[in-house]
Design a protein that fits this description.
Blueprint lengths: L18 H52 L1
Length: about 70
Amino acid sequence: MPTRPVPEGRRYDFPPLWLVPLVLIAGIFVIVFVSMTLGVLGFLAGLVAIYWLQRKADVYVRARDADADAD
């Protein structure tokens, strides 16, 4: 079965012109969404770490004060 030569205009398959800005906008949206999500998760992790450290410090100070009172 003979094949016809590919016309010059159809030789390279480029995406449709409307797809390029759509992909760029979607990529920017994904980057912003991920960075905001990580920022919120980092903030929450920081709050949990501060709360945990304050509790550990409180336990340490109470134990030290109890030790000092026992002497």
